[in-house]
Write a structure and sequence with these properties.
The longest helix is centred in the N-terminal third of the chain and has 18 residues. Strand 4 and strand 5 form a beta hairpin. It is built from seven helices and five strands. It is an alpha+beta fold. Helix 1 packs parallel to helix 3, helix 2 packs antiparallel against helix 3 and helix 3 packs antiparallel against helix 4. Strands 1-2-3-4-5 form a five-stranded antiparallel β-sheet.
Length: 172
């Protein structure tokens, strides 16, 4: 039964209203499917909505980067350094890759001082099904090339610490 629903969902022929209706039916059909099957079907519906009907997906599932934004905001609020010298603004930003449609998700925080030293903590996901990655960018001077250190999401605390270490160097 699950496979039948998956093929219907992934066919790409259903409208946003039909997908939402199916989602609502699945939420009330807990006796028909196991928890794992419900999760798989819900993810398939979310993927179709996000790919083809982004506004409807946001209404049903919320913004795709809401958890990422909250995580990066938490890094900023926990930071005890004086970031008043930040030339880029101390807030969460959407990356150019996401704005261009190159990646599914790209959200970051950054710091740049008057000497041109720059640090950035970026959370990026290539596609709906790919792993969320944490990237720490370091540009030690205006003339230097930007260096990137990549972490999988399970290593987020290490990425956060690497970013905070750069802030310790650049924000003083």
């Amino acid at each position: 039964m699950k496979d039948k629903y998956l093929s219907i969902i992934k066919s790409g022929t259903k409208t946003d209203k039909q997908l939402i209706s199916l989602y609502d039916k699945l939420r009330t059909a807990k006796d028909t499917f196991s928890d794992d099957e419900l999760t798989e079907l819900t993810r398939a519906i979310e993927q179709q909505l996000r790919d083809r009907f982004p506004r409807a997906a946001n209404r049903i599932f919320g913004a795709k980067d809401k958890e990422v934004i909250a995580l990066l905001e938490q890094v900023l609020t926990q930071c005890e350094l004086d970031l008043s010298g930040n030339k880029l603004g101390s807030h969460v930003k959407t990356g150019g890759g996401r704005l261009r449609g190159d990646v599914y998700l790209q959200t970051y925080i950054s710091y740049k001082n008057t000497q041109g030293q720059k640090a950035e903590l970026c959370l990026e996901q290539e596609s709906f099904d790919s792993e969320l990655m944490a990237l720490v960018y370091d540009k030690p001077s205006k003339e230097a090339d930007r260096q990137v250190t990549q972490f999988n999401f399970g290593q987020f605390e290490q990425a956060k610490q690497a970013y905070l270490n750069l802030l310790l160097q650049y924000a003083n």
